[in-house]
Amino acid sequence: MALVNITSSHMITPFRLAASSYLNSAPLIWSFLQGSRRGNVDFVEAVPARCAELLAQREVEGALVPVIEYQRIAGGLLVGDVCVGSQKEVLSVVLVSKDTELEHLRRVALDESSRTSATLVKIIFREFLDHEPAWTVRTPNLEEMLERNDAALIIGDPGMTFPRAGLKVWDMASLWRKYTGLGFVFAMWMVRDDAIEKARTVDFAGARDEGVAHVEDIVAEYQNRIPMPVSELRKYLTENIVFHVDDSMQRGLQLYYELAFRHKLIDSVKPLRFV
């Protein structure tokens, strides 16, 4: 009987981890799915908003969450220096209008997949443009979103693939930099309080580095999913998206939280805690 107990006590289940399969997160998860860390985690694929829900509902132990959800989910820690962010133009998080200028938008449809970007666009209108449209949440279909709205916020792969001719397109990271001079962090790994020790066995930084080193493999895989030239997919992963948190992005993240609190989009500003 003792032998059974000893054996079962050493049966450690893999760390349960959720993330989206958008191209912008591919370098963070490639190592776990196809690289040297394959099988090290129990991986769950979900859009960013759903990743946050899975973590909050304790269905996973860690998740790549929209950064605003760190402030909304009770407890939890972030994995330091690993992110999906941008220093200038992010390309895949955009506000789109047929013909209305930014200052005159009255109705905006928000991509239901988004949490951080939906909060960001509200901050930009309230803090910097001093007016606020009416908001509605929709599935990410640009044509349908624009049928009854002046503009649509769309994120991830759908945000890169629509034909832009004849449309006004505002890049959200570019707008943030225009008004603040700072970089922007869209998503980070977040871990439950009761899974910290287990999380420390997962090399998130090493996984990122391996993924970044295999950008060509990732581009080859995604070229069949995203109708863009290979050169643009490569540029997106090497120039538009940033996977490290530098000083500009850290300050941008803190300001984002402070403005979200100022405009009552979160209840308080929880200090940054890292695994």
Task: Explain the overall architecture.
This protein is of the alpha/beta class and 275 residues long. Helix content is 41%, strand content 21%. A five-stranded mixed sheet has the order 2-1-3-10-4. β1 (15-19), α2 (26-33) and β2 (41-45) form a beta-alpha-beta unit. The longest helix is centred in the C-terminal third of the chain and has 16 residues, at 247-262. The chain starts with a helix and ends in a 13-residue tail after the last helix. Residues 1-10 have low confidence and may be disordered.
Search tags:
275 residues, alpha/beta, 5-stranded mixed β-sheet, 10 strands, globular
Structural topology:
Layout: H1 2-9, E1 15-19, H2 26-33, E2 41-45, H3 48-56, E3 62-66, H4 68-72, E4 77-86, E5 93-97, E6 107-111, H5 116-129, E7 134-138, H6 142-147, E8 151-155, H7 158-161, E9 168-171, H8 172-180, E10 184-191, H9 196-199, H10 204-213, H11 215-222, H12 230-240, H13 247-262
Parallel strand pairs: 1-2, 1-3, 6-7, 6-8
Antiparallel strand pairs: 3-10, 4-10, 5-8, 5-9
Helix pairs in contact: 2-10, 5-8, 11-12
Helix share bin: 40-55%
Give the biggest beta sheet: 5 strands, mixed
Rg (C-alpha, Å): 19 Å
- Reading the helices and strands in chain order gives HEHEHEHEEEHEHEHEHEHHHHH
Mean pLDDT across residues:
94
Low-confidence stretches: 1-10
Distance between the termini: 37 Å
Count the helices. How many? 13
Question: Quick one: how many beta strands?
Answer: 10
Strand content: 15-25%
Strand order of the largest sheet: 2-1-3-10-4
Could you say which structural class the secondary elements and strand pairing correspond to?
A: alpha/beta
State the shape: globular
